[in-house]
Structure formats: C-alpha cells, structure tokens
C-alpha cells in the first residue's frame, strides 16, 4: 500500500512527489486498499459481531462511505457525527448514539433518526423518556457502564477508570437498568462500555467483557432481553514498529470468553465492537513540505504542517514515524527535529529522528495519521486546513478540498457599528 519506487514514496501506485506537485502541500493521503485490508481483517476475525466504526477517528465522507459499504455500522458521538454518518450511508439501525453530554436537541435528532442510544447518565435517560413519550416512540438503549478497569494507556485516553467522566458508575449500574425498565418509552436492549484507546494488551478487554456478563446475568432477572454486549473500541496500532495486536489476536482472546459466558444467559446477545483507530490509523500519511532547515540548538526542519493539522504529538506525546518521501533510498545521516509553522515552541511533530540529509523543498511523510489526524485539526494561526486525497491503485481523488483564506473568515461578521 505504501511502497518505494526509484527512491520516492508511493501510496499504492501514486507518487507522493507528483501529488505534491499537482495539489500542493500539506496533504493527507489515504490508501483505499489499506483501509479495505483493515476492514477485511475485522470481518474475518469477527464474522458474527456487529462492527460499529467510531467515526470520531476520521469522519471524511469518502472514507466513511467505504466502511459503510462493507456493511459496518457506526458509533457517533454528536449530532454532527450522526448527520455525517447518515450522509455517508450508514443505515439508522446500525448506528449507536454515544456521548456523555448530549443536548436535548441532539437527543431529539437521534430519536427522529431511530438510532439506538448509549446512555451515559440518569439525566439523559429521563430526557430520552420525555422526548420519546412526546413523539410516541420507544427508544432502544444500552447504558454505558464504567467497569473501573485500567487499560494501561495514556491517561488522557483511558476512559473506563472509575475516576473518568464516562459511564454509569459500576455500583449503580444495575439500579440504572431497574429505573429504565420502569419507563414506558425506553427499552434496554444491551450493555455498553469503552475502556480507552491505543490499548496494547487484550487482558483489559477480557476483564471488561467479563464484567459486562456479570451485569448481564443480573439485568436479565429484570426481564430484559440482552441483544448486545458492546465492548467499545480501543485496539492499538503499531506506531513505533514494536508491534500491536491484530483483530485476529483480539478475537482469539475475546471470542472464547464471549461464547462460553453466553451460556449463562437466556438471551442470545451479539458482540458489538467500536473500532476507530485500528480501522483507519495506518491507512494515511500526512505529507508536508520543508520550508527551511536550521542549525540551532538542534537541527530543526520547519515544515508546512504543524499541530494545526496533527495535534497528537503535542497533546499526547504521540510518536509518529517520519520519512523523507523523496529520498527513501538515501541513508540516514543526521538527527533532525521536525517542527511546524505555529508560533508555539510546543509545535513539534517529531523529535530527534535520524534521516537522510534534509533540504528546503524536500517532502516529509508522517505515517499512521488516518485516525485522530485531520478530525482534530484547526485553523489556528490563520492556517487554512489542508486537502485530503484518496488513492485507489493508480487513481487519486481529492476527497476534501484545501481551504482558502476566505474559509478563515467563513461565518464571521463585523457588527454594523464598527463599519
Ligand atoms: N467508542 C467510544 C465510545 C469512544 O469514545 C472511542 C474513542 C472509540 C469507540 C474508538 O476508539 P479507538 O478504536 O479509536 O481507540 N484523540 C485520541 C483518541 C481519543 C479516543 C476517544 N474515544 C488520540 O489521538 O489518540
């Protein structure tokens, strides 16, 4: 999917040098074949599960469309994600509306779209009941429960610890289901949890699944038919080259527990998964051009993308592999620190990397930027967001146009009295 021909990095059969000449930089470039490989890996590993793509990882319409066409559903976390996921073609009956702070308007929208809800608080439960009653509807729900499990990942992306803002606290989870059962316009049909992201060990998922089954046994006694157990997303990808579990590794540990413990229930629940990063993360590079090389305290390589376009290194100290895309056959000879154009010292994309000699005009590829890359971008420092390109064999498609300066002032107004 990513290969080198005559020293030049190619995404499938397309030279990134040619793409940069044609479209300018920076550019997010996605390989459709890689995405489909990831999709197939999940399908093979979990043939009977319902896979809900976590669209927060990458909500480009073309990318979501490919995933929807493969029969996956989607996990949406806001009205906006719900809107985009439906436009991309995910059917309503395969959408789960997550979120710990949904507005009444978002809840109304979800109910109008007939999606299932993952309910994060009792306040939300009562709001759903109220709006559903008004509309004469019955809404299917699962509670997002907080299983209090340490996923051993970066603290900012650990979500299933009892100290986290997410989910119904474990000790009142059964109570919450009791309350839901009494309400006429909500129907509990599943249990949901999500313990974190970029999780490299499978044990915490198995632990979470076991906890969901413990709870399911009790919930069934309330007369609830459990149609699904949703263990969320979170499977890691291999950013560093040290390896990461594959969907098959994941399935090998999850499915035996799922199939065994299912026997304790009268219901016949489906396993739900919500992968984001492990579907899209390694499908995409961020291509950025070198504006200047400077020998200072360090060898700084100043490129045209910064934390405005890729915030993960600054926010989570995340490591992304980098390469000089037009010098892939050259030996690494110096240590460089790749910095962006933003006026903050923290605007570092990659620190102390051994690379071939870097010069102005070179192209730097930043790998594994398909998840939480463009979606977390901003226009900070008056920088229009870049274009996104989808490559399919030797063809490429602009799937998001580069923003213009005009886009920087989109929706702004100067009040009359200032004119
Ligand atoms: N389901 C729920 C309810 C979630 O909150 C998330 C991610 C996922 C599924 C998908 O998790 P994944 O498979 O992608 O790990 N911006 C951070 C990651 C934040 C993850 C938020 N929730 C990063 O760049 O590392």
UniProtKB/TrEMBL annotation:
<feature type="binding site">
    <location>
        <position position="234"/>
    </location>
    <ligand>
        <name>pyridoxal 5'-phosphate</name>
    </ligand>
</feature>
<feature type="binding site">
    <location>
        <position position="372"/>
    </location>
    <ligand>
        <name>substrate</name>
    </ligand>
</feature>
<feature type="binding site">
    <location>
        <begin position="274"/>
        <end position="277"/>
    </location>
    <ligand>
        <name>pyridoxal 5'-phosphate</name>
    </ligand>
</feature>
<feature type="modified residue" description="N6-(pyridoxal phosphate)lysine">
    <location>
        <position position="56"/>
    </location>
</feature>
<keyword id="KW-0457">Lysine biosynthesis</keyword>
<comment type="function">
    <text>Specifically catalyzes the decarboxylation of meso-diaminopimelate (meso-DAP) to L-lysine.</text>
</comment>
<dbReference type="InterPro" id="IPR009006">
    <property type="entry name" value="Ala_racemase/Decarboxylase_C"/>
</dbReference>
<keyword id="KW-0663">Pyridoxal phosphate</keyword>
<comment type="similarity">
    <text>Belongs to the Orn/Lys/Arg decarboxylase class-II family. LysA subfamily.</text>
</comment>
<dbReference type="InterPro" id="IPR000183">
    <property type="entry name" value="Orn/DAP/Arg_de-COase"/>
</dbReference>
<feature type="active site" description="Proton donor">
    <location>
        <position position="343"/>
    </location>
</feature>
<feature type="binding site">
    <location>
        <position position="277"/>
    </location>
    <ligand>
        <name>substrate</name>
    </ligand>
</feature>
<comment type="pathway">
    <text>Amino-acid biosynthesis; L-lysine biosynthesis via DAP pathway; L-lysine from DL-2,6-diaminopimelate: step 1/1.</text>
</comment>
<dbReference type="Pfam" id="PF02784">
    <property type="entry name" value="Orn_Arg_deC_N"/>
</dbReference>
<feature type="binding site">
    <location>
        <position position="372"/>
    </location>
    <ligand>
        <name>pyridoxal 5'-phosphate</name>
    </ligand>
</feature>
<dbReference type="GO" id="GO:0009089">
    <property type="term" value="P:lysine biosynthetic process via diaminopimelate"/>
</dbReference>
<comment type="subunit">
    <text>Homodimer.</text>
</comment>
<dbReference type="GO" id="GO:0030170">
    <property type="term" value="F:pyridoxal phosphate binding"/>
</dbReference>
<keyword id="KW-0456">Lyase</keyword>
<protein>
    <recommendedName>
        <fullName>Diaminopimelate decarboxylase</fullName>
        <ecNumber>4.1.1.20</ecNumber>
    </recommendedName>
</protein>
<keyword id="KW-0210">Decarboxylase</keyword>
<feature type="binding site">
    <location>
        <position position="312"/>
    </location>
    <ligand>
        <name>substrate</name>
    </ligand>
</feature>
<dbReference type="InterPro" id="IPR022653">
    <property type="entry name" value="De-COase2_pyr-phos_BS"/>
</dbReference>
<dbReference type="InterPro" id="IPR022644">
    <property type="entry name" value="De-COase2_N"/>
</dbReference>
<feature type="domain" description="Orn/DAP/Arg decarboxylase 2 N-terminal">
    <location>
        <begin position="33"/>
        <end position="280"/>
    </location>
</feature>
<dbReference type="GO" id="GO:0008836">
    <property type="term" value="F:diaminopimelate decarboxylase activity"/>
</dbReference>
<feature type="binding site">
    <location>
        <position position="316"/>
    </location>
    <ligand>
        <name>substrate</name>
    </ligand>
</feature>
<feature type="binding site">
    <location>
        <position position="344"/>
    </location>
    <ligand>
        <name>substrate</name>
    </ligand>
</feature>
<keyword id="KW-0028">Amino-acid biosynthesis</keyword>
<dbReference type="InterPro" id="IPR002986">
    <property type="entry name" value="DAP_deCOOHase_LysA"/>
</dbReference>
<dbReference type="InterPro" id="IPR029066">
    <property type="entry name" value="PLP-binding_barrel"/>
</dbReference>
């Amino acid at each position: 999917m990513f290969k080198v021909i005559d020293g030049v990095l190619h995404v499938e059969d397309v030279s990134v040098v040619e793409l940069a000449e044609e479209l300018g930089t920076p550019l997010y470039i996605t390989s459709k074949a890689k995405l489909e490989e990831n999709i197939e890996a999940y399908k093979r590993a979990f043939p009977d599960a319902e896979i809900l793509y976590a669209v927060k990882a990458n909500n480009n319409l073309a990318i979501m469309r490919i995933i929807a066409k493969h029969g996956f559903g989607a996990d949406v976390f806001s009205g906006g994600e719900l809107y985009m996921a439906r436009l991309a073609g995910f059917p309503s009956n395969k959408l789960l509306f997550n979120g710990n702070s949904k507005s009444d308007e978002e809840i109304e929208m979800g109910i109008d779209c007939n999606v299932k809800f993952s309910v994060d608080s009792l306040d939300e439960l009562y709001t759903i009941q109220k709006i559903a009653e008004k509309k004469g509807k019955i809404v299917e729900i699962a509670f997002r429960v907080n299983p209090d499990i340490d996923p051993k990942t970066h603290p900012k992306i650990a979500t299933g610890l009892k100290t986290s803002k997410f989910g119904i606290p474990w000790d009142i989870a059964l109570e919450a289901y009791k309350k839901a059962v009494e309400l006429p316009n909500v129907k509990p049909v599943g249990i949901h949890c999500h313990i974190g992201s970029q999780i490299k060990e499978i044990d915490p998922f198995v632990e979470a699944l076991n906890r969901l089954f413990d709870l399911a046994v009790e919930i069934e006694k309330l007369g609830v038919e459990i149609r699904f157990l949703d263990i969320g997303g979170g499977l890691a990808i291999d950013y560093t080259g040290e390896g990461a579990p594959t969907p098959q590794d994941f399935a090998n540990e999850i499915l035996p527990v799922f199939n065994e413990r299912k026997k304790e229930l009268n219901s016949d629940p489906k396993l739900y998964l919500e992968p984001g990063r492990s579907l899209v993360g390694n499908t995409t590079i961020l291509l950025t051009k070198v504006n200047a090389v400077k020998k200072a305290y360090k060898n700084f390589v100043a490129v045209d993308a910064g934390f405005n376009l890729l915030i993960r290194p600054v926010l989570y100290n995340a490591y992304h592999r980098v390469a000089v895309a037009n010098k892939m056959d050259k030996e690494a000879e110096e240590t460089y620190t790749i910095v962006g154009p933003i006026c903050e010292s923290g605007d570092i994309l990659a620190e102390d990397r051994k690379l071939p000699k870097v010069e102005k005009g070179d192209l730097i590829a930043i790998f594994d930027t398909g998840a939480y890359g463009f979606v977390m971008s901003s226009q900070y420092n008056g920088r229009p967001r870049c274009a996104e390109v989808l490559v399919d064999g030797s063809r490429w498609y602009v799937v998001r146009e580069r923003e213009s300066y005009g886009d920087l002032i989109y929706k702004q107004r100067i009040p009359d009295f200032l004119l």
